[in-house]
Amino acid sequence: MKSRKPSIPYIIWMAVFTMIPMIMVGITAFTGKNGGFSLEAFEKAFFYKEVFLRSLWIALISTAICLLIAYPLAYMLTKMKPSTQNFVNMLLMIPMWMNFLLRIYAWVTILQSNGPLDTILSFFGIHGTYLGNSGAVVLGMVYEYLPFMILPIYTVMSKIDNGLIEAAQDLGSNGFHVFSKVVLPLSIPGVISGITLVFVPSASTFLVAQYLGGTNDIMIGDIIDKVFWTDQSTGSAISLILMVFILVFLVLMNFFGDEEAIA
Length: 263
Known about the structure:
The protein has helices spanning 8-29, 40-45, 49-78, 82-93, 100-111, 116-122, 134-158, 162-170, 175-204, 208-212, 220-227, 232-262. The protein is mostly helical.
C-alpha cells in the first residue's frame, strides 16, 4: 500500500489557506451586527446586482477576445521551430514578471490624453483620451490575461500526435478538414482550461476598472475591496455570491471537458 504522508502537507496547506478563509467568509456573511444569524448582508448585496452583472459581462467579453486572439497564435506557435517556440514563450512570460499594478500604470500612460497612442493618432486628425470607458477596461483585461489563454491551448496543441494529422491527410482530407476534424476537437481541453484561467480572475479582478475605466465601469471586485473595510458582512456576502457563480462556471467547464474526453 502506498504511503499517504506526502499528501499531508498539501491537505494542511489547503485547510489553512483555502478552507478556513472560505469558512470565515461564510460565517461573516451570515452574521448580523448583533452577532447573530442574519440575511441582512445578502439584502444589501442585492443592491450591487447591476455591478455584478456588468462584471460578468466584461469578463465574458474579455475571455472571448482572448480566445479569438490566442487560438490562432497558439496554432501558429506550434508550427514554428522549437527554438522559436521557446523564444516566443519567453516573450509571453516576460510581462508577467512585472508587478500587476505597474502594467496597469503603463496602459494609463499609453491611453491618456497626449499619451503615446494619442500622439500617434493625432497625425491622422484623431485626438482625445482613451481612458474612462469600458473599452479601456476590456483592453487592460485582455492584456493582463491573454498569456493564460495562449499557453494552455499551445500546450495541448503541441502534444497532438502528428500521426493523426498525417493519417487524415492520407485519407484525402484537405487543410480545413484536418483542422476541423483533428486539431480543433483535440485542442478543446486546452481551450476549456484557457477559458477557465481567464474568466475566473477577470470576473473577480479589481484595480483594472479603477485606473482604466470610468465611474460606470466599476467592477464587483472593486466593490468588495471598498465595502469590506466598512461592512465586512456585506463584503463577505458579495464575495460568497461571486464564489458560488465561479464554482458553477468551473463545474460547467469541467462537465464540457469530461464530455469532450468521452467523445
